[in-house]
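Lecture 7, part B: from sequences to assemblies.

Below are the input chains for today's worked example.
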Amino acid sequence: MEQYAIKGGNPLVGEVEIGGAKNAALPILAAAIMTDETVLIENVPDVRDTNALLQAMESIGVIVERLDRHTVKINGSQIHAHVIEDDLIKKIRASYYLIGALLGKYKEAEVVLPGGCNIGSRPIDQHIKGWKALGTKVDIAHGLISAKAESLKGSHIYMDVVSVGATINVMMAAAMAEGQTIIENAAKEPHVVDLANFLNSMGANIKGAGTDVIRIKGVSKLHKTEYTIIPDQIEAGTFMFAAAVTKGDVTVKNVIPKHLESITAKLIEIGCEVEESDDAVRVVASKPLMHTHVKTLPYPGFPTDMQPQIAVALGLSQGTSIVTESIFENRFRYVDELTRMGANIKVEGNTAIINGVNKYTGASVNAPDLRAGAALVMAALAAEGFSVIEEIHYIQRGYEDFELKLQSLGAHIEKVESEREIQKFKLKVG
Ligand code: UD1
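Predicted structure of the full complex, as structure tokens:
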């Protein structure tokens, strides 16, 4: 099993290019099958989740052609089945975006129930509520969700919770429904907007994405397009906080600074300097980090996907910080691992009370999920001595070339597969 061997203590310094947003790429790749014409998508991150989705799409006859590492051509004209049972797809949450896409195009879909990161129960009642409102019969049996409609009819849908997945899934189906759909209490995340822009470039008529109310006038056909996916807000935020915890100076390039506002604000609060330009953000951490409080919220609030990373920084900040997780119920599973590196954190329900310590010390720890895994890497980079991070397949779900990008910033990190390789790494970096 692959692991990361890390020797901490080096400030990260330099520039890093941010890739395409995983959480935008997944719905966009799925939605690309909604036309029979060929769609070209650029800036697709080469990570496990996008690759698993593309493989599942190929299993039903979608033609996927990779022009280069980040550019794919997708043609959905040869789809021969609307049932997706591919084993890989069970592991990724976004498998259910194929339901919205197939339902919109063919009015039927059957897909294995989604997996994804173990960060708490992840109901899909709002997706189902939305599809049903459009006239779909939805059944769950034998681990499959099946959705079938005689025809899809536009509807007025009020989401009971702000859900990225449900907003996206209903938007896709409604794009090809008859008449108008209004989604109220919609998610406003940049990837929701990116999907709407993508669908509009295929001929859909979607207005209001990025606000609480999305209005969709259904069209009967979508057409080819060429589209570039937005930069990854969370990858960028992770490198920004990595600069903070290692007392570094990192410029994250190819970003949309507006998408990073809540992250930037917290970095400034804890004592970092942040310089913004058109498509880059520089984080300089020259002073001791200060405590703060943070509560995760839907966009434009502080993202839940950055919660473990900010906690790692607050663990090294002077004073007591409180982190409140309001989106997922089980997102503090990394705390025990971080405690083994010397952090002083007490979890009570959805709150973590963090008493800052002067330093972390290297340890062997397990990545419990994607973002927490990245956060533990950050902690190891800041720590004194060696660490080994296990279960890095979680990290590879959403970070492309994570270790290579960190190396380019001066980090001592290597992907290893055996005790021998760990020893070799230790000898090399001293
Ligand atoms: C997406 C992101 C994930 C991010 C999350 C919140 C992808 C592939 N994943 O996940 O990285 O952490 O947004 O920004 O884009 N809920 C319901 N019923 C539903 C759907 C959701 O109660 O039908 C609840 C969830 O349990 C959670 C909250 O709504 O408490 C938000 O979840 P949601 O926005 O749907 O997250 P995902 O789309 O799964």
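Note for the exam: Residues 22-228 form a domain with the UDP-n-acetylglucosamine1-carboxyvinyl-transferase; Chain fold (CATH 3.65.10.10). Keep this in mind when comparing with the next example.
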